[in-house]
From TrEMBL:
Family: Belongs to the UPF0213 family.
Protein name: GIY-YIG domain-containing protein
SMART domains reported in the protein's UniProt record: GIYc (SM00465)
Gene source species: gamma proteobacterium HTCC2207
Segments traversing the membrane: none
InterPro entries: GIY-YIG_endonuc, GIY-YIG_endonuc_sf, UPF0213_domain
PROSITE patterns: GIY_YIG
Domain GIY-YIG span(s) in chain numbering: 2-78
Gene3D superfamilies: GIY-YIG endonuclease (3.40.1440.10)
Amino acid sequence: MSEWFVYLIRATDQSIYTGITTDVERRFNEHLNGRAGAKYFRGRRPEDVVFVEGGHDRSSASIREAQIKKLSRKHKLDLINA
């Protein structure tokens, strides 16, 4: 069974994208090159990965992603800076 990661990417407009994957570097490069879903990056460019949380299976990663997406920007920044 693969380890899943929850990740946050800061975009060029300083917004924060939340996603899950089994390979953060590959997924970031897919976002960067426009090869992967995420309509989010059609109007902005990914700048860098600012947060990674591992130790998840697919289910717990999805649950954690949903929790983070519900956070305010301030709380997401607190998570990044913690």
